[in-house]
Amino acid sequence: MSNLSKGKKTAKSLLVAARDLFVLNGYAAVSMREIALKLGINAGAIYNHFPSKQEILFRLLEDHMLDLLEQWDILEVERSKLSDLLILRMFVNFHINFHIDKSKEVFLSYMELRSLDRRNFSKISKLRDEYESILQNILVLGKNNKNLDFDDSQITTKAILGTLSSLSHWYHQKGRLGAEDIRKIYWHLIFNSVRTDRKRNV
Amino acid sequence: MSNLSKGKKTAKSLLVAARDLFVLNGYAAVSMREIALKLGINAGAIYNHFPSKQEILFRLLEDHMLDLLEQWDILEVERSKLSDLLILRMFVNFHINFHIDKSKEVFLSYMELRSLDRRNFSKISKLRDEYESILQNILVLGKNNKNLDFDDSQITTKAILGTLSSLSHWYHQKGRLGAEDIRKIYWHLIFNSVRTDRKRNV
DNA sequence: TATATAAATGAATGAACGTTCATTTATATA
DNA sequence: TATATAAATGAACGTTCATTCATTTATATA
Fold first, then answer.
1. Contact partners, residue B168, CB within 8 Å, separation at least 6
2. Closest residue (CA to C1') to nucleotide D5 in the complex
């Protein structure tokens, strides 16, 4: 950070300020003046760093999605040695870790997709689909190999992501439970919901 | 509907128009002029029916939450004869049915909580907590009676609601699966995640 | 049908919005 | 240190916003 030029530092600070305000009040309800105020600069100065408010939102969401996909890619080597079930556990842990580390970014890309214009929405949607299909592929592969069982890969994918995403709605650093507890609890829930000897009736 | 006075009809239409626009673009991004345009009336005329834009949002969210809680209350008699597990299934089915019937209202009360002012936010939050505690009580009771098993009732409650809420993000009337399929799939997932003989390790 | 009330109009209010721009000030490079 | 470039200022632009209001039009009641 300290080796960055003043301009880059300001740009970075603007992204952080915008992120925090967007998370708190929503994109449409936050003004450029409010964002500028957080750094103690004038609203006009923002335009030395970003061409528009829309571009700030897009940058936040794109940076986040690219980061997410890249971090998952990095685990590829490690992953290739694992069983279907352990890969699923890796995904769950990875996802939870990311939610804990980047809870604001996750919340933002969840809530503000609709504030993107058509072009940007389409770009981010592609990245989201890419991420969703990672989980779906894990599930399908596991089912084909008879290491997992469930009714419908598409809905199960969405349900699991829904389960995990609930995290970003309540997680706060200072909470009652540590990351390890949370990973364990969620893993138990998810594992049991797709294990091969699950029950089909009450 | 046809036995309502013109004023009541317009008020109802305004709520529907506002609901649809808020769902599509978000509260802050929708103007009173847009809402009025949907009915072919002037923006000023809205104020014969509602005192403010904020009040329209509040009415939408409060009506929805009161409806939700009331509908659950109505099932009380039926519920008293059921086992812990069947009550949980009733809750899951009830929740899914509601999400399917009122997907827009559900989505709205999920996304626009933060657009409420302090006073209104507090009122709706109370209603939401009330609903959440219904599920938590079911889980705790089931665990005490050894008919359910899980690690943490608070997180498990949030996780299950997260799972179910993912429905409002992808469900569309014309989809591939019927309501019955969806109820079955979700029930299998949830039931297996909290059943007493779940596994704790891979 | 006459009349009281309800609902809609259309213009106006002041405030806030994203963005632009000429100018000034700060930073980095030589 | 001199100079080119980057960053910030502060006022202004044209729009749009939620809301108000005097007036007109429609509806319901008697």
1. B99, B103, B106, B107, B110
2. A7
Q: What are the angstrom distances between the C-alpha of B117 and each of B24, B55, B121?
A: 21, 10, 6
Check: CB of residue A158 under 8 Å from CB of residue B170. yes
The pLDDT of residue A1 is above 60: no
Question: Is residue A2 pLDDT above 70, yes or no?
Answer: no
Least CB–CB distance from B188: residue in A185, A186, A198:
A198
Residues 6+ apart with CB under 8 A from A66: A127
**Count of CA atoms in the C-beta half-sphere (13 A) of A31:** 6
Of the candidates B70, B176, B101, B85, the residue with the CA atom closest to the CA atom of residue B139: B85
Distances (CA, A) of A97 to A82, A84, A94, A174, B191: 19, 20, 5, 16, 26
Contact B162 A158 (CB under 8 A): no
Contacts of A158 in chain B (CB under 8 A): 166, 169-170
Those of residues 140-199 in B touching chain A at CB distance below 8 A are 150-152, 155-156, 158-167, 169-170, 177, 181-182, 184-186, 188-195, 198-199
Measuring alpha carbon to C1', the residue closest to nucleotide D12 is A44
* Number of neighbouring beta carbons within 10 Å of residue A11: 17
Among B32, B37, B22, B26, which residue's Cα sits nearest to residue B52? B32
For chain B, the first-to-last Cα distance in angstroms comes to 56
Between residues 88 and 117 of chain B, which touch chain A (CB distance below 8 Å)? 89, 111, 114-115
Q: Which residues of chain B make contact with A186, given a CB cutoff of 8 A?
A: 155, 159
Contacts of A167 in chain B (CB under 8 A): 162
Task: Quick: pLDDT tens for B123-152.
Answer: 999 999 999 999 999 999 999 999 999 999
Confidence of residue A171 (pLDDT cuts 50, 70, 90): confident
Q: Which residues of chain B have pLDDT under 50?
A: none
